[in-house]
Amino acid sequence: MITVGTTVVSGAPINSGGGGAGLPVAGGAGEVPVSTGAGTTYAASLFSDEMGTVLAAFLGAVSGQTVIGDGAGDVGTTSADVSALLAAADAAAARTALGLAPSTLAAQARLVAATRRGPVAMTGWSDSNYVAPITAPSSGAQPSIVRGSSFVVSLYAPTAAPGAGAHLAVSADGALAVRGWLIAEGTAGANAGNLVLYSPSDALAVQIPGVSTTGGWHAVAVSVSAAGVVRYSIDGAAAATATGTPALTARTTDDVRIGRGVGGGASGAATALAYLAVWGSVLSDADLAIASATPSAGAPSLPSAPAWEWAAAGHVGCDRVSLVAGIYQVVGAPALWMP
Fold first, then answer.
1. How far apart are CA 79 and CA 70, in angstroms?
2. pLDDT of 290-310, one tens digit each?
3. Distance CA 130, CA 183 (A)
4. pTM of the prediction?
5. Whose CA is closest to 329, among 134, 97, 69, 84?
């Protein structure tokens, strides 16, 4: 005889006072009693059918989702990332879910960072140590940071405001007065820790404050509207409006040099640069926050495909990297670096 509480369930009705007349007559093996409604009888149903219904209701809305223990005596469901991996149809899909099949330089940079102690950046910049193309750029293939465009920079500042005119990226053919765009860290004083977007050809500058006022990893995403409004997000913060007037002149056929001043000039050896990307469109405030949200990853999760991008991680194990506009090589001896 089996008793649950004060109710005898071996050979006797279950809850005979109102829950039905007892166990239903089984129609086959593997069936269980299932209530047909409050105060009614039980019906026989296959256990596998009932479990399938329960699991479908609990897990079926997310492909690949399953139940896992939570370590505290209860259960939960797998995260979106784990569920996507479990839903992979084959090894290639599993590699994609794990981020092992990067389609952008940003994704490659994040993968390299995940398999090392940290992100890879490049430092030791000078007029003789920089990155430049070795093939002639095609018209329209070079990035232009002017009105109607956006960009993001991921960098590592070893100390607060290491600036002193540290040039992070430049497009120029050497004629300082008529060519190029420049992203530079502000010099000492009021500009310290700022990012300065400067166009020598237009003699126009925009100040983006507080980019590297503290040491460590930082990312800044910037949009420049057709009307000249500059919006920016630093380290995933809500977008704000910068001061200054953005460049008017597009320079789409100049060589892009990373870490070297316009037509020469001072470069900042202290700042480590990990990633650059340029869009030929104006990113929304929400996209700016996405693009700058993960500075310590070494590269952002891109809100959309950029028109041009560069990553220091692309130079790991090689000195030449194929980019949108051609093949880029290390000139001199800038250093690959991890914090």
1. 12
2. 999 988 887 888 888 888 888
3. 14
4. 0.69
5. 134
